[in-house]
Amino acid sequence: MTVPVSPQHPSPEEAPSPVKPYGLWRSPIEAEQVARQTTAYDAVHASGEAVYWLETRPSEDGRAVVVRWTNDAGVVDAVPAWFDVGSRVHEYGGGAYLPVRMTLFACRQDDQRLYRIDEDRDLVPITAAPPTPASLRYADLRVTRAGRLLVCVRERHQGGEVVNELVGVAPL
Questions:
Q1: 10 Å Cβ neighbour count for 107?
Q2: How far is CA 145 from CA 28, 44, 103, in A?
Q3: Which end of the chain is more exposed for a tag (fewer CB within 10 A), N or C?
Q4: What is the pLDDT of residues 48-76, one digit of tens each?
Q5: Are 54 and 85 in contact (CB under 8 A)?
Q6: Could you tell me which of 51, 106, 52, 103 has the C-alpha nearest to residue 82?
Q7: What is the dihedral of CA 83, 170, 47, 82, to 10 degrees?
Q8: Under 8 Å CB-to-CB from 38, ≥6 apart: which residues?
């Protein structure tokens, strides 16, 4: 393969390293270095005067955090520092949180339970602990118009079977 000589492509004799076809040279930048610097943004919601999004932070071992922006407070984490947001419904998750005005409903990655998180109060689990850890999983949260019921997909892992259901949860 012949590459035309230019300032960007010096001749093989002048090149700082051997000239090789695309994909055959070893990069000095490892994929892990790039991934560790890349915060992912996902699942944007607007509720009342706030905007929420899910931030996956490689610097925190990939923890997913719901972040809230308001004109008054600016950008703040809407979940405690130890709370990792995530759903394992269908094994890939999705729809793991829902803001309703200044209240946040979120699924916690490690136990798969749903929690109600109010700005000035401790978080409260709104689903019971399952018989086996993470055997009940929740996703795709929606609230009814009257705000009395949180409707979502629940996935039950029991007795070697997986059952998907549409359920209503009283949000307290």
A1: 26
A2: 54, 20, 15
A3: N
A4: 899 999 999 998 999 999 999 999 999 99
A5: yes
A6: 106
A7: -10
A8: 58
Q: Are 108 and 124 in contact (CB under 8 A)?
A: no
Fold of 31-169: Methylamine Dehydrogenase; Chain H (2.130.10)
HEC secondary structure over the chain: CCCCCCCCCCCCCCCCCCCCCCCCCCCCCCHHHHHHCCCEEEEEEEECCEEEEEEEEHHHCCEEEEEEEECCCEEEECCCCCCCECCCHHHCCCCCEEEECCEEEEEECCCCCEEEEECCCCCEECCCCCCCCCCEEEEEEEECCCCCCEEEEEEEEECCEEEEEEEEECCC
148 phi and psi, to 5 degrees?
A: -95, -10
Query: Looking at the chain, how many residues does it have?
Result: 172
| Domain range summary for the chain, segments of one domain joined by + | 31-169
pLDDT tens digits for 84-142? 999 999 988 789 999 998 899 999 999 999 999 998 888 999 999 999 999 999 999 99
